[in-house]
Structures are given as structure tokens and as C-alpha cells.
Specification:
By secondary structure, the protein is mainly α. It has nine helices and six strands; from the N terminus they run βαβααβαααααββαβ. Bound molecules: flavin-adenine dinucleotide.
Length: 265
């Protein structure tokens, strides 16, 4: 096994390298176990590509690739699409200039102290928090896609992606149970941002101390007081979140200006 050099990073930043590595893994590894996409799977994949193509605040080369993939999926009236055709496009065999998705896994904020820890699942959370925040910051971004005017568009797409394609089936079942229970209460783009934050914290508390936990990154309620002191308050001796401050923090943390290009190749 290759010796990995630890990459210095800041907890207060989001790293583009994590999200690009996540997309690389998603398109070239996770999806590869589905030989053809059809029916509900194809619809789920199309909606996922729509949401990332429109909302991912990525580098131009990556956004161009996602937009080209979307145009291709929308223009082909096919009922089934072989995975190999998607892979060809993602690998840029069509030679459309300026499109590129790195074939490297370069975990930064998502690096683990052992190769089997963190990485891809961490990058998926990062990606979807970023997408819910981008949707709230740019409410017109999904215009003319069929997903506009639905404050739940990103979360429903995430829910279906996780339930259909995410390699961790148990995770998919847990996430589906949480969605079934409370997703219908979400009525605005801001509430969608907060819903995903709250559910991620529920997962963090369920997984604290589990074997899958990286000892170097113990599961904690997030954002911790060092990241956002004003998010935390006390009422009658008990900890409470100031959700207004949490929302503002999430919108800053997952905004374009806080995404570092460090370690992107
Ligand atoms: P992660 O939990 O992956 O978080 C990544 C980063 O997001 C953190 O470093 C932090 O910067 C930020 N963050 C943390 N909490 C929040 C928050 N509340 N809001 C916004 N940002 C936050 N594993 C299981 O073993 N069982 C499961 O049932 C399970 N379900 C999952 C469901 C989904 C949808 C996903 C994407 C993953 C699931 N996982 C599950 C994996 C697990 O949640 C972690 O991703 C994995 O253990 C790696 O943890 P991590 O330390 O990298 O931090």
C-alpha cells in the first residue's frame, strides 16, 4: 500500500479536492456496479446530474463536464443508458475541449488516519451540504429543469441517490427512515439547509464511538464551539442551538468563498 503523506488543512474550510474526488468516485466506481440505467434509476441519476450541473460551485472544467453530461442525458430520448456510455463521457473520450474530472482520489478535509476511514462518505455529506446551501443562495439556479420551485429538490434528489446508488445500504435505509419521518415538514430552501444539518448531527451522535469512527476525527455535534461560538447557547443549564446563527454559519461555511482549491490537481 502506498504511503500517504498527511495533508495539512483547516477545519473551518471546505475543500474542492474532496468534492471532486467524491464525484470521481461516484461516477467511476459507485455507478460502475450498475450495468445499465433505466426506469427509476435513470430518473434518479438524471436528477442528480441536473442538481450538480446547476448548483455545484466547481471549477469550470468540471462544471462543463457536468453540463455536457446533462445536455446529453436530456437530449437522448433513451429509456435505458449503458453505464459504459456515461463512463466514456466522464472520461472525456468525446474530446470536448476543456472538460475534465480528475481520476485521482485526493482527500483533504475528508482524509482519514487509515485508508478505509472517512473519504467518500465524508465527501458526499460535504457535497450535499454545499448543494443545499447553493440552492438557498441562488434560488433561480434550477429554473427550467423541472426541479424549480420545489424547496425539497436537492434533498429529494439526495434521498433517492443515497437509496438507489450509495454503496452503504445500511446508510441508505437509515437516511430513508429519517426522510420519511420529517422531510415533508421542510417548506423553504433555508429549512432544507437546516434539515440536512440536523439529520447529519443525528447520524453523528448515533455513530459516536462506533468502529467506523476515525479516532483522529471523533464524531461530535457540529459546528463545534470553536467553529461557531454564537451557534451555542444555554437555557436553564441546558445546551440549545441558536438556529438562526447556525443557518448563517452554514451559508458561510458551504459558500463559494469558503471552498479552498488547495490540493486540486
Ligand atoms: P462526516 O460525518 O462524514 O462529516 C463530514 C464533514 O461534514 C465533517 O468533517 C464536518 O466538517 C461536516 N459536518 C459534520 N457534521 C455536520 C452537520 N451536522 N452539518 C453540516 N456539516 C457537518 N455510517 C454508518 O456507519 N452508518 C450509517 O447509518 C451511516 N449513514 C450515512 C448516511 C449518509 C447520507 C451518508 C452520506 C453517510 C452515512 N454514514 C453512515 C457515514 C458517516 O456518516 C460518515 O460519513 C463517516 O463515518 C465518515 O465520518 P467523518 O468523520 O468523515 O465525518
Amino acid at each position: 500500500e502506498e504511503m500517504e503523506v498527511w495533508k495539512e488543512f483547516e477545519k473551518s474550510k471546505v475543500y474542492m479536492a474532496d468534492m471532486e474526488s467524491g464525484l470521481h468516485y461516484l461516477f467511476r466506481v459507485e455507478l460502475a456496479s450498475h450495468e445499465t440505467l433505466e426506469g427509476e434509476e435513470l430518473k434518479t441519476f438524471k436528477d442528480f446530474v441536473t442538481v450538480v450541473a446547476k448548483l455545484f460551485p466547481g471549477r469550470q472544467s468540471v462544471v462543463k463536464l457536468l453540463e455536457t453530461l446533462l445536455e446529453w442525458l436530456v437530449s437522448l430520448p433513451l429509456e435505458r443508458i449503458p453505464y459504459d456510455a456515461i463512463l466514456d463521457l466522464v472520461n472525456n473520450k468525446m474530446r470536448i475541449s476543456g472538460m475534465f474530472l480528475s481520476e485521482q482520489l485526493q482527500w483533504v478535509g475528508c482524509q482519514g488516519s487509515r485508508p478505509e476511514l472517512r473519504g467518500y462518505p465524508c465527501s458526499l455529506w460535504t457535497l450535499f451540504h454545499t448543494l443545499t446551501v447553493q440552492a438557498a443562495l441562488r434560488p433561480d439556479a434550477l429554473a427550467n429543469t423541472g426541479l424549480e420551485e420545489d424547496p425539497l429538490a436537492v434533498l429529494q434528489t439526495m434521498r433517492r441517490y443515497i437509496g438507489t446508488f450509495f454503496g452503504c445500504r445500511e446508510c441508505g435505509q437509515h437516511f430513508e427512515a429519517m426522510a420519511k419521518e420529517s422531510l415533508q415538514q421542510v417548506k423553504s430552501l433555508d429549512e432544507a439547509v437546516l434539515w440536512l444539518w440536523r439529520k447529519h448531527n443525528q447520524v453523528n451522535s448515533r455513530l459516536a464511538g462506533a468502529l467506523s469512527e476515525d479516532p483522529r476525527f471523533p464524531k461530535a455535534q457540529w459546528p463545534t464551539p470553536d467553529l461557531c461560538p454564537t451557534c451555542h447557547e444555554e437555557q436553564e443549564g441546558l445546551h440549545v442551538w441558536n438556529e438562526e446563527k447556525v443557518l448563517a454559519f452554514l451559508k458561510q461555511h458551504y459558500s463559494t468563498g469558503n471552498i479552498s482549491p488547495k490540493y486540486t490537481s
